[in-house]
Write a structure and sequence with these properties.
Number of strands: 4
Number of domains: 1
Shape: globular
Structural class: mainly alpha
Distance between the termini: 61 Å
Strand order of the largest sheet: 1-2
Radius of gyration: 19 Å
Number of helices: 7
Amino acid sequence: MATKDRSRQDLVQAGLHVGYELTEFVRCSLPTKDPNAALEARLVHARTLIEFICGRPEPQTEADRAGRRRPARRRNRSDIAPADFGAQEFPVAGTDVEATLDRTLPLIDRHLSHLSWARVDDADEAGQWTPERLLGPILQAYRRFLDTLPDPPPDGHPLGLTSALTEAEALLAARDHAEGAGTALLTTPSQATSTIEVLTFPPPEGPQSPPV
């Protein structure tokens, strides 16, 4: 449910913040000169987007899991939520995408946001941080959120919500084009207006000896 009635200007500003999270998530999924920084930034943006679209699942009891009951969802009262824009409160509820994102949140918690012993005991979980594994579900969830917005939109519908998806898709299209042309699309994960630089790599000359 919406936190409270918001002014048109509030919704416009909130929409820009939501859109920024999406475009930066995608930007940080592109090849970069600093892959570790991009990885951590990507996961921070992913966590924010998941909590916006899905909320957080309430802890389940053994009886809940045995009965395959879907977990209840929760949000902080101060959180920006889809319902603030007139969309469904939980746009991907009950879907495979929701289940995937529910599994992703605790991984980010344990391996990035908190100094958990899981970093030592379950280090193999780090293999789940490939860009494509997060790109698809989050973009699908975001599109579902947009699909549940009112039509026609209410006065003050923040265009930042839809323009962000357009920009994100353009970034991915540019990446695919660069890869098809034998180039690398390099970007710096800093600001939404950061410049994209396309560098051409020379063709490989054959196997090379490892450094001594």
